[in-house]
Structures are given as C-alpha cells and as structure tokens.
Amino acid sequence: MIDRLLSSQDGVVTSTHARAAGLSADAIEWRVRSGRWRRVSRGVYVARDRPFTDAARARCAVWSTSHGVLTGTSAAFWLGITTHLPPRVEVTVPLTSSGRAVPGVVLRRRTLDAADIVEVRRLRVTGLALTVLEASAVLGQEVMDRQLQRNATVIALRRAQDRNRGRRGSPAAETLLRAAEGGARSEAERLAVRVLRAARLTGWVINHPFGPYIIDIAFPAQRVAIEIDGWAFHSDTRAFHHDRIRQNVLSASWTVLRYTWQDLTERPDAVAAEIRAFVHRVQ
C-alpha cells in the first residue's frame, strides 16, 4: 500500500500519510535510518529510489508547512499553466500560522479565501483564476491571454482579484485585467500614443482613414502605418481573416508595423526606436 501511495505522490509522503497506510512510527524511522527514505523536514519524507522531480519539490514545500497552499508561479506549474517549477517554491500560509520556511521555499503569509483554494492531486493550490492573476503579474500578459482562450473567464478573474486586493502583484494584475475587461486593443492604442509622445515623435495621427479601413496610428507623409493587435482571446475566425485582408491592402502602399500589448508594456523604448528608424528611412 505504501508503494502505491508513493507512486501516486511523486515519491513524497508525510508521517500522517504513512500512518494511514499502516506504518508505525518505528517503521517510518527504520526507513529513514536504513536510507530508504530521506527526511526533508519534520514529518515529510521522500523515497530515495525515485527521482526528485519538480512535482516532488512542490509537494515537499507545501507539506512542510502548516495549512500551506501552493501559490504564484509555483501554482501555475502545478495547474499546467507553465512547464517548470521556479527554483524557489512559493507557498502561502495563514496569517496565524507559525513556523519558518524550509530551504528552497518562499513563505508568504496571507489568509486566502476558501473560494481561492482547490486540491489538485492531493495538493492544496490556488484556483485557476487567482493563479492566472498572480502568474500574469510576474510572467506577463501572455499568461492571462492564453488562459482566457482556454478555461479562465474574465468574470472569474475579476472576482478573484476583488477578493485579494492588496496582495503582492495586485496592481500589475489589475492593469492587465482592466485591459482584458475593456478590450486590450483600445488600451494598447492609448499606450502606443504615450510611447510616441514620450519619444517625442511627431507627424503621426490616430484613426487615420484609408479607403474602407481606419489605420490605428499613421505617419501619412511617410506612409508608415502602426497597427495595434488586441489580445487573442478577443479574436474569432472572422476577425482573423478580416485583419489579414486589411494587412494585405495596407501593405500594398504603406509600411505596416504591428505591435502588441506586450510590446508596448515590456519594451516601449525598443518600439519607439523601431518606429523612428522606419519613419526616417522613408523620409
């Protein structure tokens, strides 16, 4: 029975699990002394005959705490949003919890709402909505966008955000969520205008008409068109094909540069430099 339990838990077991599987305290201690098990922390063990994987690290981190929950980018790994566990595993414990973090664990103290905690493969972890918010604040907009194309919803993200205001990363997540709620394309256009003004670029206009289309930002004299892409979760097949037709028509007589929300937030100086270079090239 204990071998089946170890197989289902990535080679990690707690003393509580082991006793429930029929092992006595002496039997547990014998496995440690004989080298079959390694004690990671008080009451947490790993079997030495199994690989110590990222999943095993995550279990050890959570089970080494009192009422711990896997959070942040560590939770994103457990839920399959990312593919690698961070070098230091993030675990959140209630404000009333005592104890210190074990090596390799970042311990955060915050009492999570029960609505934001789920159990996945016998491990307590933040639910999808809160995990997406926290991971996006660290890893960027593409995390939120990708999950909104899959199982996450804007409504669920908003509810989780409102339940967890003031947490670490909350302002960054709020900015991304507002863009998702209001349509990131319009917000990205406003960001693009700020980038151009900060770079002191001139000669551009917004919403420039060209035939049946409206160019987001245009340099008419140089015929340079700046097109802003919204988030993928707002798109559908019809919108995709419309954008491709639009791109082909514009490209016949304009130099078209396309930028995303991520471009404008993470590399605004590079965006401005690229636009400047193209504008000067065709003058």
Question: How would you briefly describe this protein structure?
Answer:
47% of the residues lie in helices and 20% in strands. The chain has 283 residues and is of the alpha+beta class. The protein has three domains: 1-50; 53-181, no CATH class; 184-281, VSR Endonuclease (Endonuclease, Chain A).
Query: Which structural class best describes the helix and strand composition?
Result: alpha+beta
| Major beta sheet, strand line-up | 9-10-11-12
Helix content: 40-55%
The average pLDDT value, as a whole number, equals 89
Tell me what portion of residues adopts beta-strand conformation.
15-25%
Query: SSE order in H/E notation?
Result: HEHHEEHEHEEEEHHHHHEEEHEHH
Q: How many DSSP-defined strands? A: 12
- Give the total of domains: 3
How would you characterize the largest beta sheet? Answer: 4 strands, mixed
What general form does the structure show? elongated
Explain this structure to me?
With 283 residues, this protein is of the alpha+beta class. The protein has 3 domains: 50 residues; 129 residues, no CATH class; 98 residues, Endonuclease, Chain A (3-Layer(aba) Sandwich), CATH 3.40.960. 47% of the residues lie in helices and 20% in strands. It is built from 13 helices and 12 strands. A 4-stranded mixed beta sheet has the order 9-10-11-12, sandwiched between helices. Strand 7 and strand 8 form a beta hairpin. The protein starts with a helix and ends with a helix. This is Type IV toxin-antitoxin system AbiEi family antitoxin domain-containing protein.
